[in-house]
Amino acid sequence: MKKAFVLAISCLLFLTNCEQPKKEVIKTYTEEPHSYAQPNDAVISHLSLDIEVNFDTRVINGTATYNIETNGAAQIILDAKYLNISEVKADGKVTDFTLGAMDESLGQPLTIAIKENTKNIAITYQTTAKTEALQWLNAQQTADKTNPFLFTQGQAILTRTWIPIQDSPQIRITYDATVKVPSNLMAVMSAENPKEKTADGIYHFKMVQPIPAYLMALAVGDIEYKAISNRTGVYAEKSMIEKVHTEFSDMEKMVLAAENLYGAYDWEQFDVIVLPPSFPFGGMENPRLTFATPTVIAGDKSLTSLVAHELAHSWSGNLVTNSTWDDFWLNEGFTVYFETRIMEALYGKERANMLALIGRQDLDDELEYLKDKPNDTKLKLDLKGRNPDDGMNSIAYDKGYLFLRTLEEKVGRDKMDAFLKAYFKENAFSTTNTEDFIKYLNANLLDNNNITFNTLEWIYEPGVPANASVIKSDAFSNVERVLQNFMDTNKIDAAATSQWTPQEWGHFIRNFSKDISVTQLQQLDDTFNFTNSTNSYISMVWYEQSILNAYHGNDVDIKISEFLNTVGRRWYVTTLFSAFKKADRVDEALVIYKTARQNYHSVTANTIDTLLGYSE
Ligand code: BES
Ligand code: ZN
Q1: Reduced to 3 states, what is the DSSP secondary structure of residue 98?
Q2: 154 C-alpha vs ligand 2 centroid, how far in Å?
Q3: Taking the mean position of all CA atoms in its chain, how far away is CA 456?
Q4: With a 6 A CB cut-off, is 287 part of the ligand 1 pocket?
Q5: pLDDT, tens digit, for every residue of 269-308?
Q6: What is residue 26's predicted lDDT score, i.e. its pLDDT?
Q7: Per residue in 543-578, is it b (16+ CB within 10 Å) or e — as a string?
Q8: What number does the ligand 1 atom closest to the CA of 313 have?
Q9: pTM of this prediction?
């Protein structure tokens, strides 16, 4: 970039002979509402991280050294939040820095004095107790219950709470890291990873492909590795490793199916680490090493679409990244579409359509919930001045999916696939915003084929356009018949349900009529033992119905409380606390939340604090 910049300057100075370099275009960054960085002036390009993880003090401390590229600016601005910065050097010499005013969601600008030709800056820092990315777990909060655990969650703008960094999805860096941890634990990152513990607890990492800051990730715990193929495998605690390995045994097949659809997997290795149950998401697509919740380990592979989803992000999100969080649907909508295609390739159309219909119902629920905030139901968002978390709901995922599915039906699968494959290839290791995508879509799929499509309505208008694809599943239609029959007659046709998958059970439970009686719920529970289901998805939807309908049989209240005290997956936890709220049972919710909150990662706790109007 520097070279190109010098060329551009000389171009201005010597207006004659002003030939632009062919390939070397100066990257210009568009305005980013959720980062203080000014990358057009000075930008980081490589990070060398040297840190120590201290479980006694619950602090990470060390030095982040960046290679930088500048246009001669006198300062470089990074993002920092709840970090103690002790010293900053520029090319090895101590330099001035200031931490600006604290914004509750963005944190502080860290402004560092540099010289025209400064090559690197080194920031010595430590994390604090207020960190939002890190969750420090005691042994009791893990599966094995013998050692502590630590994991990070960077997306959307939390990496700045454990590393001072330019925390914008438009800025990509390569990195290497040296991480020192207690010698009985292993450290893994979104990078090339160890497969065994070292004797001294020192681990070295390398990420040679450039990634945005939100994909920086670290986990430390008493974990083991077990390979599935030569490029896929799983990390988990000892008591989980075999179960996890069996559950995810189709991982290599998923990678092959994905490559077959949209081109080579560019990150060499694809591993999954199953974290303790407080992990706030189903999964997080940290490159080379997806972080996942243990709630998907159902014993029957029924919830492994999560792996397909995080794998799909290796193209949509990690390779082609949303430019700003207003374009989040480009990450998630494409990923849900891709996930569904992987699931179809492995397990057939019926399974894919069940998934798509579950998403459709999630979307309808979300639209109902947002009925007074139509702007939040647009694909392209305007999150300036808001926390990007506000835009991270089912609209990006399920409306985004529906848009792409509808488009596929319009243009045909062959054209759609060729288009997407080229889109990923041409934009690899770069960012796209909604407007660039629309231009690309028009040029490469619609205009050239003389196809008209209401793209702008889908992207810039609230709600769901009238031409939305109608998704059908015979399996779900059958479930609806069995349910209707039960509502009408109080008789359940057990034979008709004997082969149901957890998705069908979920659909059955989610679609109880609003006036289902407590007696009917008791009858169903006594027949199917939903309260004691070992499938986390069935438990979640059953507990939701139990809360909404004031069902208290079979000690379900104890189960709900146990669930909320161990599982921190935000989607599940939010569904259940929202049900308490809808049912006017906030007092009961607060009793549970007061003890459960300490087990939650900050992103889950923040969401539930707001939902229940709770403050510590
Ligand atoms: N990237 C998301 C998780 C995320 C979203 C983290 C927004 C922070 C902010 C991840 O890929 C995801 O979508 N997870 C889902 C999985 C599901 C759709 C299969 C989840 O957590 O439930
Ligand atoms: Zn996702």
Answers
A1: strand
A2: 13
A3: 26
A4: no
A5: 999 999 999 999 999 999 999 999 999 999 999 999 999 9
A6: 60
A7: bbbbbbbebebbebbebbbebbbebbbbbbbebbbb
A8: 11
A9: 0.96
